[in-house]
Amino acid sequence: MENITDKLTNTLNNSFLKNSGTPNVDTTERVISIAAGAFIFYKGLKNIWHHPIIALQEAAVGGVLLYRGATGVCPVYTRLGKDTSDPEAINITERFIVNVPRETLYRFWSDVSNLPKFMKHLKSVEQTGDNVSHWVANTPGNIVGLSWNAEVTRQEENAYIGWRSIEGSMIDNAGKVEFSDALNGTGTELLVEISYFPPAGSVGRGITSLFNGVFEDMIKEDINNFKRYVEAEEFKTFAGLQQ
To answer: Which of 12, 33, 104, 197 could bond to 172 as cystine, CB 3.0-4.6 Å?
Structure first.
């Protein structure tokens, strides 16, 4: 039986103890892997005297699952380039018509400090330099402080504003707004695209809870709020649109 024990040890070592790498398995998968791995590993050890070959195979499989769950590293995912540990990006695109002149809307969006007036997911946006600004988010429950620096990437007067977060920011954010005259000749048609990409690695996993639909719903509601906000009497008075 000594040879069988040695084989079991070598099998487990070769199967998972020597594997290492960047975590690429999400929390749910890790819990399932630990539970299944423990059961299969125990089953293999229990049958080691009666069916040694099958027991070795079961112990190896169980060991891999235990390693996968304990470390969050899946060798198969690594080879496939798959990573379930990083939260998915938020991508939102909305197109709508606002009964406000194009020049007025463009001027409003050009001052980034105006954005929190209708975007409740933003606590503040502050201009810090030429085409550079600092953004602070209102996250669900304010569990995580989330902020980043962004820069204007392209700007065409009364037609287009594009921005993105600066490299090395806590979160990757990008967006654009296109302004065009509505086909019916009344108001302005806007195309708004906003994306949030949580960073990979431990920081990304630490803020995964923000990307569970709640934060995305907040942003969608904010964009829809814009139409109501700029068509309200208060904004029209502020923008000098009242007769």
So the answer is: 197
Assigned token pair, 126: 């502050």
Q: CA-to-CA distance for 132 and 82, rounded, in angstroms?
A: 34
160: helix, strand or coil: strand
**Residue 102 to residue 94: CA distance in whole angstroms:** 17
Q: What is the pTM of this model?
A: 0.60
Q: What is the mean pLDDT of residues 183-188?
A: 82
Q: Per CATH, the architecture of 90-238 is what?
A: 2-Layer Sandwich (3.30)
Q: How far apart are CA 102 and CA 100, in angstroms?
A: 6
Q: Is the pLDDT of residue 197 over 50?
A: yes
Of residues 179 and 4, the one with the higher pLDDT is 179
Distance separating alpha carbons of residues 64 and 17, to the nearest angstrom: 8
Phi then psi for residue 3, to 5 deg, are -65, -35
What is the predicted pLDDT for the residue at 18? 47
The domains of the chain are located at 2-80, 90-238
Structure tokens at 118: 């209708």
Q: Is 67 exposed, middle or buried (0-12, 13-18, 19+ CB in 10 A)?
A: buried
Say which residues have a Cβ less than 8 Å from residue 102's Cβ, sequence separation at least 6: 158, 179, 180, 181, 188
Query: Which of 86, 83, 88 lies closest to 21, judged by CA?
Result: 83
**Angle in degrees, 0-180, between the axes of helices 27-46 and 52-71, rounded to the nearest 10:** 160
Q: Is the pLDDT of residue 12 over 60?
A: no
The strands making up 122-129's β-sheet, listed across from edge to edge, are: 90-98, 188-197, 172-181, 160-165, 146-156, 132-137, 122-129
pLDDT averaged over every residue in the chain: 75
